[in-house]
Amino acid sequence: MDRVSTALIAASIESINRVGPCSAKLRLEKIEDIREARRKDIVNRAKEILHKWNIESMPSVDEVYKQISNTMKVGKVGKYGPENLPAGPGLEKTKDIIIVEGRADIINLMRCGITNTVALEGAKIPNSIKKLSREKESTALLDGDRGGDLIFKELMQVATIKYVGRAPRGKEIEECNCKEISKALAEKIAINRPQKPKRENKKSEIPIQISNVAKALEGTLEAVLLNEKLIQIEKLPVSQLAEKLHKTKGVKCIVFDGIITQRIVDIAAEKSIKKLVASRISEAVKPVLNVDLITFKTVFAN
User: Fold this and answer.
1) What CATH number should be reported for the domain holding residue 252?
2) Strand-pair category, 253-260 with 275-281
């Protein structure tokens, strides 16, 4: 009932002056809403349940602080091999490894959650690195400077490197933030060593301009775009080459310190580019008409 009806009934009850043979007088002292009383009981019980839940299941402030602190710990740099090379704690647990130049690089990568690392600690390649690179899939992550260029050349001669990534030009890995490191690893370049470079076109002599550009680019992971007169149009990182070719006109020859892939060959054919000159030719490449595929080895032999 609503309040009006309830009050009317209460007033009617108070008007009763006889019960059976006896005189009677009734007076209303209080009206209580049973629903409100039940609500209070529910609220009090909910408070009790919540309090018990907080005590039993919610971590204390100290526990929360400890959990957060543990996520910020990057671990300790370990040692690997008889040369005691600096290494990340995850080096021996994974099938793929990242080879960097120094201890500071390892610490920086660990801050970004990358622990499968080992450092060269010098320009001379340790025997442990040579052996490890044969046993595991190895990526060289090097500084974007002259020192990184020299170490890259040395690794190519004595180690089995599958991929190479570089810091932005003029920057060291230890200076890079996590975004730059992730980008360098995402844009790493595969190092293929074809045993039978049958697809190379050797029927034409190599102009001196191309030879000079190839010598200047060796070990830099950069590309130079040349026009019909073999004059430089642009110089850029190899990782940006494919995207750039879609937007650039007038290119007739590309010289780059990288691998000629099928994608580059297809773009060259589409853009009427006559020559591709690079460090290597991928074994998966299918030659196309009117595009000469030439390696640095052939250029330097002329």
Assistant:
1) 3.40.140.20
2) parallel
Q: What is the pLDDT of residues 2-43, one digit of tens each?
A: 778 888 888 888 888 888 788 888 888 887 777 777 888 898
Residues 160 and 224 both lie in one domain: no
Q: Which amino acid type is present at position 203?
A: K
How many domains does the chain fold into? 3
Q: Name the residue type at position 24.
A: A
Domain-embedded: residue 73: no
Radius of gyration in angstroms for the set of CA atoms belonging to the chain, rounded to a whole number: 38
Q: How far apart are CA 150 and CA 138, in angstroms?
A: 18
The one-letter amino acid code at 103 reads: R
The dihedral through the CA atoms of 120, 155, 165, 214 has a sign that is positive
Measure the CA–CA gap between 149 and 196, rounded to whole angstroms. 26
Is 206's pLDDT higher than 60? Answer: yes
* Residue that the structure tokens 């260029």 belong to: 149
d(CA 203, CA 216): 24
Residues 161-191: tens digit of each pLDDT: 999 999 998 899 999 999 999 999 998 888 8
Going by their DSSP bridges, the two strands 78-80 and 18-19 should be labelled as: unpaired
| Domain containing residue 45 | 3-57
